[in-house]
Amino acid sequence: MADGAAYLHNILNDGTSIEHESPRVDHDGDSFISGGDDEFSTMSLCSNHPDSISNESGCRPVNGEDTEHLPVPLEIQLENQDFQSREDGLHPNSTNHEIPTNINLPPIPRGKSIAHHHIQEQNVVYCSFDIETGGDKCGILQLSTQLFRINREGEMNTCTEDIFDSYIKPPTGSVIDPKSTVVHGLCMSSLELQNAPVIEVVWGNFCDFISRRIQASEIGILIAYNGESCDLKWLWRLTQAPLSTLSIPSPLKFFMDPLRVIQQYKSCEFHPNNSKLSSLSLKSVYSHITGTQLDGAHNSLNDVKAQSIIVSSCKFVDYINKTKSITTIYEIFSKRAQSEMKKMMEPVLPVHSPWRELKDDDSSSIWSPGRNDQYTGPHGGGVCKPSSKIQTVARKSGRLVDLFLFVFPLSLLEHIATETKRYAYTDWVVQQDRFDRDGAKTSKPFLAPLQPDSSTSIPSNKNARHRADYEGKNILSLHTLSSAGWVFLL
User: Fold this and answer.
1) Helix (H, G, I), strand (E, B) or coil at 367
2) Residue (of 1, 40, 86) closest to 254 by Cα position
3) Which SS3 state, helix, strand or coil, does residue 226 take?
4) Three-class DSSP category at 55
């Protein structure tokens, strides 16, 4: 590490002019969509120095040598990442900020992924991962993964022993969202769930499977299609949330979302510009590759097999080792990502006094409010039923309008009519443009209130108007309707 420190010292003190630059094109001219401030975007490996260029390969001086740049050595990059993970307050159970590497490896070439050297040395195991859930009140119901390797010819190597699939028994008191059942067909009465182990057992088995099937010299890349919006949220809850006792399997060091890769690289054949696909869903991309429909979609085992086919496709495999394709597992669980996911996990606000929230361990399943809060009894009203007054009105009158006017008296309707007339035809307003936070004019103006002059009762602004000036004045007085005993709402 001393050599790396000396290397940085030379760069920062050799007098080379350094500018700030935001590259938009990689070394082969392939355009991509920058990750920006997205919590899952590739982190800047040079962010600790304010005068450095943040790009795919690290820090480099701008001296006209575009091909012979000076990237930060891999060992310095990894040290910076490890420091960042500690700063981000990662879960103490996580062991994924120790990425095995040879300190003598050359720098990562510009335009290549952070896992470039592992990919070149053929010591990468791809872990196609997917889950099915029952919603926020239930949790994970099925967890599946398929391990595979890609050789130098771009061919996928896998076997039946490289598949893990298990259903998960929901916790006691869980409620499966009906919308989730429509997607995957699982409900509380499903035999697959009733006979399944709990999540702690399944996760332990999953970790053992990963440790057995990935050798010590290999590293794993977790693959989840559109995983940033679903799978990673649940993995964070499972392994990084407060009070969690589980952790990510240590061989899994990196993460890749095939959907994100397709969206970012316009030269990818699956990009809508080239494939003309109307949708980039897993089913659509799979069908585009194989020419067949994906049977049993939203069964996580079928989905992981489809993901494996997409990633190993000759139309996709060249984009695996791109700058924006792969990130680290612990970067996903950065402090900002945790903050955003915690917002999504905020519980419902507690009930206020004198009410109390029922807990799972309550001995009594029946609760009633205190005597002063009860409707029945000498200190409350009558029995829980229509009041005697409204029953009298209902018995004596055979007209529905009498019941309506009993609940909504004519005085209330007259007040509503008066205020509506004032708001629409009396108050003065002027149309003004609306601007967004950046000062840009929006397409929808608004009406701002105006105060009339005290002498003329008319505003001095020549553009003053009433809110309903351009509307039809089809207002019937409610007074004319009351004598007939009917109320029409126009």
Assistant:
1) coil
2) 40
3) coil
4) strand
d(C-alpha 326, C-alpha 319), whole Å = 10
pLDDT digits (tens, 9 = 90+) for 376-420: 555 555 556 677 888 888 888 878 888 888 889 999 999 999 999
Tell whether 93 is covered by a domain.
yes
Q: Which residues contact 19 (CB under 8 A, 6 or more apart)?
A: 53, 62
Q: Are 319 and 325 in contact (CB under 8 A)?
A: yes
Question: For residues 249 and 208, what is the distance between their CA atoms, to the nearest angstrom?
Answer: 8
| Domain annotation covers residue 128 | yes
Q: Which domain holds residue 209?
A: 2-344
Contacts of 32 by beta carbon, 8 Å cutoff, 6+ apart: 24, 25, 26, 264, 265, 266, 322, 323, 324
Q: How far is Cα 157 from Cα 151, in angstroms, rounded to an integer?
A: 7
What is the pTM assigned to this prediction?
Answer: 0.54
* Euclidean distance between CA atoms 453 and 459, whole angstroms: 5
CA–CA separation, 40 and 290 (whole Å): 30
Which whole number is the average pLDDT over 333-356?
Answer: 63
Per the model's pLDDT, the better-predicted residue between 399 and 148 turns out to be: 148
DSSP notation for 402-437: HHHHHHS-HHHHHHHHHHHHIIIIISEEEEE--B-T
Q: What is the CATH number of the domain that holds 328?
A: 3.30.420.10
Asked if residue 367 belongs to a domain, the reply is: no
Number of structural domains found in the chain? 1
Please check the confidence at residue 105 and state whether its pLDDT lies above 70.
Answer: yes
Alpha-carbon gap, residue 457 to 455, rounded angstroms: 6
Tell me how crowded residue 385 is: count the other CB atoms within 10 A of its CB. Answer: 8
Phi, psi of 332 (to 5 degrees): -60, -35
The b/e string for 312-347 (b: 16+ C-beta within 10 A; e otherwise) is: bbebbbbbbbbbbbbbbbbbbbbeebbeebeeeeee
193 found inside a domain: yes
Which residues, in sequence order, are CB contacts of 482 under 8 Å at separation 6+?
A: 410
Distance from C-alpha of 253 to C-alpha of 119, rounded to nearest angstrom: 13
Secondary structure class of 328 (helix, strand, coil): strand
Residue 348 and residue 113: Cα distance in Å, rounded? 41
**33-40 — which CB contacts under 8 Å span 24+ positions?**
33/263, 33/264, 35/324, 39/334, 39/336, 39/337, 39/340, 40/228, 40/232, 40/257, 40/260, 40/327, 40/331, 40/332, 40/337
- What does DSSP assign to residue 165? E
Q: Which two tokens stand for residue 106?
A: 């050359």
